Structures are given as structure tokens and as C-alpha cells.
């Protein structure tokens, strides 16, 4: 019996390309890491100076999700020493997540993004953690973590959007 579903070459190649990219073990280039981190540092600066907008807020949240996904991937693949280091990084990510929740709640109450000194330290620590991990993580691991983080943020956004009938 013939398969009635036609083969979609474009979709097939996309899956192959995604699998290949996910397995790249080359280190990050300085330029690609700068492309990843500069918007996050700009959003952090905007938070520090009281100019953070909604896009910057979500950029910081997405970077925190990237940190979480990187920590999980590196923990799963690493030696005992790497696992111990990732557990410390996980504490940083969780603290930043709590800080970002408080910053978001403050925005909902006041219409402005603001942070306490401790919250700024926690957010700065997670951005620094992403930068450090991105420097040492292979391209494929970082790309998978970024894809997972984008899916996490998109999923959270869809949950927050009111349903339209």
C-alpha cells in the first residue's frame, strides 16, 4: 500500500538542518556572542537608569530562560565539577526569576519598571551568567538553549493573552 501523504522536501531539509546545527560543537565567536549579549546588556542598563520598556523586560526574561536552559543542558552533559558549578548557576537564575517577577508586578501596579538594589544585582548576575556560559558552551548547545528559551517566553506570552471569541 502506498503512503498517501506526500513527502515535503522543504520540511525534511529543515529537520536535517536543525539536527546538524544542534550538534555543532564549535565554540562561540566573539561577534556572535556580542550579537547575543549586547541587547541584554542594553536592557539591563535601561532597567538601571529607569528607561526599561516592555521589550527590554521580555529580553531580560528571555535571557534568564536561556541561562536556565543552558544550565540544564550543561548539567546533564557535564562532569561532577560542572554539575556542582551549574547548581550554583541555577540559584542565580532562580533569584533573577524572582526579581523579574517582582519587577513585573511593580510595573503592573505603577506603569513603570523599577528594581531594588538587590533585584538589580540578581538580574545583573543572570546576564553575566549567560555571557559566561555562552562563551564556553558549544554553538549547538547554545542554539538549542536559545530555541527552548524562546519557546518558554512565547508560551508564557500566549498564556497571558486574553482569549478572543
Q: What does this protein look like?
A:
The structure is a single chain. With 165 residues, the chain is mostly helical. It has one domain (29-160). It contains six helices and no strands. It has helices at 9-22, 30-48, 54-77, 80-110, 117-136, 139-160. Helix 2 (30-48) crosses helix 3 and helix 3 (54-77) packs antiparallel against helix 4. The longest helix has 31 residues, at 80-110. The protein is globular and about 45 Å long.
State Rg. Answer: 18 Å
- From the helix content, strand content and strand pairing, which structural class follows? mainly alpha
Mean of residue pLDDT? 84
Structurally, the number of domains stands at 1
Ranges with pLDDT <50 over ≥5 residues?
none
Q: Which SSEs are present, and which pair or pack?
A:
Blueprint: H1 9-22, H2 30-48, H3 54-77, H4 80-110, H5 117-136, H6 139-160
Helix pairs in contact: 2-3, 2-5, 3-4, 3-5, 3-6, 4-5
Record keyword descriptors for this entry.
single chain; 165 residues; mainly alpha; 6 helices
